Amino acid sequence: MSRTQRKSNRNKKKKWRIILASLVFIYLFFRSVPSLFAVRSKTVLPESKIVEDKVQAKAIIIKKEYLYKAYGEGKVEILSDEGEKVAAGTKVARLTLLKDNSTLNQDLKDIDNKIDTLTDMGKDDNIAKNDVDKIEKNIDSIIDDIQQSISKGDYENIAFLKDKLSIYEGKQKDVSGENTLINQSLESLKDKRKEIVEQIASNSKDYFSQEPGIVSFKIDGYEELYSFNHREEYISSDFQKIDEGQRIVANKDSVETGDPIFKIIDNFEWYMIINVENIEDIGSYEEGDTISIAGDEIEDNIHGRVEKISVEKDKGLILCRFNTDFEKYYDKRYMEIDIVKHSQEGYKIPTKSIVEKDGIKGVYVKDISGIIKFKPIKVITEEDKTTYIECGDENNNIEIEGYDQSFKTITAFDEIFLNTMNIKEGMVIN
């Protein structure tokens, strides 16, 4: 072989080696390009959430409220704090009257008449122990007077006659002893008289709580429209949008006769009437069931008992009873709420990360070893750009409708790819 031929052969071999090396390089380059894009693709971790199946509704709070109104025109002096829990008998407010003492004057006149009558009875010391007939005659006479007062509707006189009857019955038991009932009644009336005289003299009226509860000077005008005593009578058509404006009685405010000054609210028992637009949304509830309520104005969830369900055409009204957390909502009347029908643990993931493979919804993830895998998911609910999916059982297995087998879903540590354009299952990313 000539020298020229040997040189030509060497050039050919060199040329083929260059071509082969180039092909290998091109092959490796194109193999690596998707992985390079995958490396640059953004990933997120799934976020653990409690996922709730909710029904939006509107609610009106019904409370056991006791209104205290002005006896006359005057100025209010506040003696308790808004939202304060008070016992029965607590002095809550004082009303300084401007001019009208007619109510107090009439109370004083009534008490004076009773004191005069009881004083005259106390002077009757001529009843002897053996004068039983006279006592019985007096008792019979009083009973006749009570019956006549009942027929006339004179209930104020009935109360007085009952006190008088008790006194004679006491004398019947011991006609010779000291008449303690008269003394006790006189003492009580004199104390009351002294109190009224002092109030007239100072031109003021003190207000004491007649029952324990929460004090509120916020008057919304719905205290009697949505009454505690009528809570079971409301139907869906009674429900109306509440004007949430309140009149707040402040210290030194002027009031007219009959104006509410404050209210005492029972904090041990309260209710909601919940209006539901579609009765089918609450079809699973029955009277006596526990109900869970959530909402923007509600801290955590509150739990109550379904007392009554009223149906009117396609709408529904639920009456729910609660006995906790009232201090958080005592000054509210109208609320937009969510009825929580069901809650479960789940993952929150971006909706755009979801793809479909072989008819199964799922996401591409990078596991801890850097391998890209497709993992099926089961959607619970979607909200705008967010999707909530099931966590699966303790082994992360989920059941998908139409398949007999279970599928391994994502874990809390899987990195989910947001952009799946250049992602393929089996890629390895360091």
Averaging pLDDT over every residue, what do you get?
A: 82
Biggest sheet, in brief?
6 strands, antiparallel, barrel
Structural class: alpha+beta
Strand/helix succession: HEEEEEHHHHEEEEEEEEEEEEEEEEEE
Q: What are the low-pLDDT stretches, counting only 5+ consecutive residues below 50?
A: 32-39, 125-129
Tally of helical runs: 5
The helix fraction, in percent, is 25-40%
Spatial gap, N to C terminus: 53 Å
Rg estimate, integer Å: 42 Å
Strand content: 25-35%
The geometry reads as elongated
Task: List the strand order in the largest sheet.
Answer: 2-11-14-13-12-15
Counting DSSP E segments of at least 2 residues, the number of strands comes to 23
Domain count:
4
Protein architecture, described:
The chain has 430 residues and is of the alpha+beta class. It has 4 domains: 1-40; 56-92 and 211-344, no CATH class; 102-202, no CATH class; 354-417, no CATH class. The protein is built from 5 helices and 23 strands. The protein has helices at 3-40, 102-122, 132-152, 155-173, 180-202; strands at 43-44, 47-69, 74-78, 85-86, 91-97, 204-208, 213-216, 218-219, 247-248, 254-255, 260-276, 290-294, 302-312, 315-322, 334-350, 355-357, 360-366, 372-376, 379-383, 386-390, 397-399, 406-408, 415-417. It has a 6-stranded antiparallel β-barrel with strand order 2-11-14-13-12-15. A hairpin with a 5-residue loop joins strand 17 (360-366) and strand 18. Helix 2 (102-122) runs antiparallel to helix 5 and helix 3 packs antiparallel against helix 4. The protein is elongated, with a radius of gyration of 42 Å. 21% of the residues are buried. The model is unreliable at 32-39 and 125-129 (pLDDT under 50).
